Amino acid sequence: MTALLPYVYACLAALMIALLAWRALVMKKAPRQARLDAIAWASSVLASPDGYAILDTETTGVGEDDEIIQIAIVDPSGRELVNTLVRPTRERSIPAKATAVHGIRRAHLRDAPSWPDVSPEVEEALCGRRVVAYNAAFDGRLMQQTHRINGGLAAPSEWACAMLAYAAFVGEPDVRKPGEYKWQKLAGGDHTAIGDCRATLALIRLMAAASTERS
């Protein structure tokens, strides 16, 4: 496992660089153009149900040693591709702070498959698709950490962040980060992986529905 660490960190670094580059590109554009670009992106996702997959995870926390304990994937038509709890392969408790968010306790994971067990199903669902997530940097990092801890599937390299697109669509300036848009809460999310997938898809549909603004 130690021999894989340089590869894991290199993949994670490439993912972060790609996401930061995309954010920088969006923020250089005028708010009106950034909104139109978000609308065009959302429309392209919905127009390609075989080209994208919307993914969400619930985790043991947000730190560098945390891992995925639930994952769901839907396609842009809303078809469910994956929806499962994930049992950590090492003994660990679920912090009360995390359980307060998603409601998952260690007992819920007793009979759940491990990350190596669910990896083939996840890999099949993502094959040939670009991954869309609401906060793609977080989900990508947690996939990579879960791979490092448990083995199984590593994080894909092709991601798009619905959170950044929706921030540009709303266009609310971030007073703490001049020149950037404020990140918006995921409306309709219920802190289950499948519920947040569907909430992300609903926001993508909302942005795409504003396509008349492009004329």
Question: What does the model show?
Answer:
It is a single chain. By secondary structure, the chain is α/β, with parallel strands linked by helices. It has a single domain, classed as Nucleotidyltransferase, domain 5 (2-Layer Sandwich), CATH 3.30.420.10. The chain contains seven helices and five strands; from the N terminus they run H-H-E-E-E-H-H-E-H-E-H-H. It has a five-stranded mixed sheet, sandwiched between helices. Strand 2 and strand 3 form a beta hairpin. Helix 1 runs antiparallel to helix 5 (136-150) and helix 2 (31-46) packs across helix 6. The longest helix has 23 residues, at 5-27.
Brief summary of the model shown:
Helices cover 46% and strands 13% of the residues. The protein is an alpha/beta fold and 215 residues long. A hairpin with a 5-residue loop joins strand 2 and strand 3.
End-to-end Cα distance, whole Å, is 53 Å
CATH architecture: 2-Layer Sandwich
CATH class: Alpha Beta
Number of domains: 1
Within CATH, the superfamily carries the name Ribonuclease H-like superfamily/Ribonuclease H
Which class of secondary structure composition applies to the elements? alpha/beta
Largest sheet entry:
5 strands, mixed
The CATH topology turns out to be Nucleotidyltransferase, domain 5
Principal-axis shape: globular
DSSP summary, beta strand count: 5
Radius of gyration (CA) equals 17 Å
Beta content comes to 5-15%
- What series of H and E elements makes up the topology? HHEEEHHEHEHH
Largest sheet strand order: 3-2-1-4-5
Count, helices: 7
Helix content: 40-55%
Mean pLDDT: 90
Low-pLDDT regions: none
